[in-house]
Amino acid sequence: MKILRLTASLAGLLLLGAGLTGCSQAVNLEAAPDANDYICAEEMVRLPDSIVNLARRSTNAQSTAAWGSPASVLFRCGVAPVDVSKLTCVTTSNVDWLVDDSAAPSYRFITFARKPATEVIVDSKVASGAAVLDELAAAVTRAKASKRCSG
């Protein structure tokens, strides 16, 4: 059930991220439920201007970011924290991430056991997920981890 919701969420975000308004260059994203958490504000000011040579773009929602044209990396802070999951958990730059590959070659990564959680969607045809997550680690560590991935 959770994976189905994750897949639906991922599909919706990809559609939102792909849709640009006619005269605006802002990427159309939906704010996460806890986007107004102060930790998200701390993350936002630490986001890089570029990721793996993709320039940062304007977005139209709080606590969101996008890189590339078309947007190939999407970022949302304030999604629901996940402490238990059957998804694969990987660690990069000392941050644990759950990996949803149900919409490959677009991959959804969500921080594990951090509140608020951060979601990153990467088009793997354009950028390496590991490289993107490495570049975002300094920002997402503003939300402290309550536990780590296990084996």
Secondary structure layout plus pairing:
Blueprint: H1 2-18, H2 38-44, E1 50-51, E2 54-57, E3 64-67, E4 73-79, E5 88-92, E6 95-103, E7 106-111, E8 117-123, H3 129-140
Antiparallel strand pairs: 1-2, 2-3, 3-4, 4-8, 5-6, 6-7, 7-8
Can you characterise this structure?
With 151 residues, this protein is an alpha+beta fold. The chain has one domain (2-140). 24% of the residues lie in helices and 29% in strands. It is built from three helices and eight strands. The protein has helices spanning 2-18, 38-44, 129-140, and strands at residues 50-51, 54-57, 64-67, 73-79, 88-92, 95-103, 106-111, 117-123. It has an eight-stranded antiparallel beta sheet with strand order 1-2-3-4-8-7-6-5, with helices on both faces. A hairpin with a 2-residue loop joins strand 5 and strand 6. The longest helix is centred in the N-terminal third of the chain and has 17 residues, at 2-18. The protein starts with a helix and ends in an 11-residue tail after the last helix. 36% of the residues are buried.
